[in-house]
Structure formats: C-alpha cells, structure tokens
Design brief:
alpha+beta; 60s Ribosomal Protein L30, Chain: A; two-stranded antiparallel ribbon; globular
C-alpha cells in the first residue's frame, strides 16, 4: 500500500520528528495539533475557546491537505490539561462537526508541548 506524507503551510509546521499527517491507502493519521498559529508558529492569543478553535482550524487544514475534511474523521483524541474545559470543547466541537460524530476520547494530561492546554489528533477515512 502506498504511504504518503501530508504537508500544508495552512497548519503549523512540525516542531519535532513527525509529519503533519501520513496517508496509507484511504486512512489518514493526523498528528497532534496544539493552538499554534501557522504563520507565526506562536501560541494563539486569547482564552481557552480561542485555543480550542485554533486546534480545530489546524486539524481542518491538515485534513483538507490530505483530500478530506473534518467530516471524514473517524476517531478524534482530545488531550486537556484541565478536564473542567471538557464542556467548552463539546460546545466548540459542535460548530465543526455534525452527526454522525466521530468516535472520541478525552484524556486529562499533566502537560502538553509549549505549555498548551489542549491538543488533538485524529484518524480520518477518505475516498
């Protein structure tokens, strides 16, 4: 099966030894996105809602670069340094997804890269 690396300037560049996404057949594995602004590679300014929106926008950009959309996401993982933000994640997510929603996990973690409070990765099926 063909393996393709996905890259777009509309999402933050990798800050480590990984690709923004890897496509194998019709499955796309999207790397974790934190609320980095692609143009500056700095964390987005604003409240937690702004952080969550930026992460979804980053995931959306990578999904589109792979030939899909957020609607093609089958599995979404959400990592939060404060699970008290879970309801806000649900509210923002409802702006980006319609039923049927992807399978999802929300995981409380001690810390994330660059001091982020939220990170998300996903698996997408296209074709």
């Amino acid at each position: 099966m063909t393996r393709e690396t996905i890259h777009t300037d509309k999402a933050p560049q990798a800050i480590g030894t990984y690709s923004q996404a890897v496509k194998v057949g019709n499955t796309v594995y999207l790397s974790g996105q934190i609320p980095l602004v692609p143009e500056t590679m700095e964390m987005v300014e604003g409240d937690m809602e702004a952080n969550i929106v930026r992460v979804f926008e980053n995931l959306k950009a990578v999904a589109e670069a792979a030939g899909g959309s957020l609607a093609d996401i089958a599995k979404l993982n959400i990592f939060l340094t404060d699970l008290n933000n879970f309801a806000l994640v649900n509210e923002v997510m409802s702006r980006y997804f319609e039923q049927p929603y992807p399978a999802r996990a929300a995981i409380g973690v001690a810390s994330l890269p660059k001091g982020a409070e939220v990170e998300m990765d996903a698996i997408m099926e296209i074709g």
